[in-house]
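ok so for the tutorial part 2 we go from a plain amino acid sequence to predicted structure tokens. step 1 is just haveing the sequence, like this:
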Amino acid sequence: MQGAPVAWNVHKPLRADGTTVLVTGGNAGIGYFIAEQLATAGATVIIGSRSPAKAAAAVEAITARVRGSQVQHIPLDLTDLASLRASVSQLDTDALDAVVLNAGIALDEPPRKQNRRGHELMFATNHLGHFALVHWLAPWLEAAPAARIVTMGSFAARSERLDLDDLQSVRDYDPKRTYGRSKLAQMTFAFELDRRLRAAGSTCMSVIAHPGGALDALTPPRPGIHQRSGSQHLLTLPAKLLVQGKDAGAWPAVRATIDPDVQGGQLWGPSRLGLSGKPHLETPHPHMTDQPTGQALWTASTQLTRVEAFTS
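step 2 — the prediction. this is what the tokens look like for a chain of 312 residues:
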């Protein structure tokens, strides 16, 4: 019989000693605070970053702040699919208890940009790179007793819909809309991944989280990682009624990674209007969990990346 749900304290999460977690984009923004909070909980954290200098700065910041923390980094460029296998081979561990698929980019204005393979850059980085990464990480995830694949979605995905005939926004490019669709693709993939894991009887599970509204100006400073001016902070204080800093934006992903009561296929987000507050379980919107859309996206992603995310 399952016991009562654990009480969750965002400032003192449950211990995660003995676990190893890879955080993509853990060198900055929400990813940094995910890495810091997991290290505080006792997990060994591996930061995946395309910038060795920024990754080293994040490692230094966490180890200076969290006594006895175990933090490493590996090179990881999600825009370059051909490099991912070599990056994963540098993991200095026999098993991964979790990977947090957090890294991403958001372009603010045209023109449309592409990676080396000709894929639209936001879709390629936010979704296709993570899709391929899960494939290459499969042996490490399967080696853990019950690994978690935690996908960082976005509030922006609520209002978007995938165009399966134009996934890369060739015909209809708008930076804001394309970003929202790339995050929706991530979330749709994560729900489809969990369905396939369950069907295959895998011990791994796929969980989804989103940070709500997280602003730099409301984020606490970290030397070498993030600084904010006093005037910036004061000007955005009224916004604190609705949104939060990136440290709080990390809470849902951290809970999705280490809370023993979390289950596959769940969506975790902030409790106040989905924008701020402590993490809670959300009901995903139907367009995120639509199975035919998930299957079609999976097929398209397999064709574009030339690999298939694992299901056993």
